[in-house]
Amino acid sequence: MQKDITRHPCFNLEARAKFARVHLPVAPKCNIQCNYCNRKYDCTNESRPGVTSSVLSPLQAVHYMKALRKKMPNISVIGIAGPGDPFANPEETLMTMKLAHKEFPDLLFCLSTNGLDLEPYIDQLAEIGVSHVTLTINSLHPETLGKIYRWVRYKRRVYRGAEGGKILLEQQLKCIPLLKKKNIIVKINTVVCPGINDGEIEELAKTVGKLGADTMNCIPMYPTENTDFERLGEPSKLEMKEIKSKICHYIRPMTHCARCRADAAGLLGHDNLEAMNMIGQFSTM
Ligand code: SF4
Ligand code: SF4
């Protein structure tokens, strides 16, 4: 079935007021530890802090979706954005996408990941019909990445510092052209951390743009409690504006990011709390 990708509210400004997206929180584990993330909270890949109300199994997620769609017929996108990383939980992620694809063939499918363990699953994602992938890439420099990530767990080994950053970055950059080969729309998320990576965003935009990424979403870091970056402070509105005006020479900046929760449901920026509360009725976890 040919899907209308213009109905994705995160990627199309005009669709934003009309179409809703839902995040299915089926991926609790993570394969890295970002120094701005307290995993009692949502994945900062896409989020503002706020606990995900529940974690669902793939079957529970589909039952929840069926009930939700009756209340919210304008849903156009099903996304998985945590609360950990989709590919630290590949079985749950793929099973959810497969079941959802069978039940809701007309909907778009979207994933948000740090990219570390994405590569082996790209063919399957294309077969299932995933049309949009968000990759969070924070710098092109392993030393900077070493400051942002406390650890990176890859192929059952834990790496720290620049060594971990290098492995993560290699996987992330490799995935952009592979996703584009499958005609998947690629968004890059970058968390702007003051004094850490804020001077490196322009060169990152240049590189990911050359590799074929479609759009870039620069997110101001939110200083979350009980994290290493708790006292770093948030970048100012002016700094964010300047960053966006620099990157637009290389890639289309995303202008209406809503920093969504891992269990978000509704129009961007107007999450439907009743829908988010429904999750509890479907979860036994
Ligand atoms: Fe948290 Fe997401 Fe980073 Fe994992 S990738 S540590 S869930 S922000
Ligand atoms: Fe996809 Fe991110 Fe939008 Fe969720 S918020 S639907 S993961 S682009």
Provide structural commentary.
The chain has helices spanning 58-71, 90-103, 122-128, 142-148, 161-181, 201-211, 237-247, 273-282; strands at 20-23, 32-34, 75-80, 108-113, 130-136, 149-154, 157-159, 185-192, 215-220, 252-253, 265-267, 270-271. The chain has 285 residues and is of the alpha/beta class. The protein has a nine-stranded mixed β-sheet. A three-stranded antiparallel β-sheet has the order 2-6-7. It has eight helices and twelve strands. One iron/sulfur cluster binds next to strand 1, strand 3, strand 4 and strand 5. One iron/sulfur cluster (SF4) is lined by residues 30, 32-34, 37, 39, 43-45, 82, 84-85, 114.
Please provide a brief summary of the model.
With 285 residues, this protein is α/β, with parallel strands linked by helices.
Helix-strand layout with pairing:
Layout: E1 20-23, E2 32-34, H1 58-71, E3 75-80, H2 90-103, E4 108-113, H3 122-128, E5 130-136, H4 142-148, E6 149-154, E7 157-159, H5 161-181, E8 185-192, H6 201-211, E9 215-220, H7 237-247, E10 252-253, E11 265-267, E12 270-271, H8 273-282
Parallel strand pairs: 1-3, 3-4, 4-5, 5-8, 8-9, 9-10
Antiparallel strand pairs: 1-11, 2-6, 6-7, 11-12
Helix pairs in contact: 1-2, 1-8, 4-5
The structure holds iron/sulfur cluster (2 copies).
Distance between the termini: 34 Å
- Count up the helices: 8
How much helicity do the residues have?
25-40%
| Total count of strands | 12
Radius of gyration: 17 Å
Distinct compounds present: iron/sulfur cluster
pLDDT < 50 runs, ≥5 residues:
42-51
The secondary structure category is alpha/beta
Read across the widest sheet, the strand sequence of neighbours is 10-9-8-5-4-3-1-11-12
Give me the strand/helix succession: EEHEHEHEHEEHEHEHEEEH
The shape, in one word, is globular
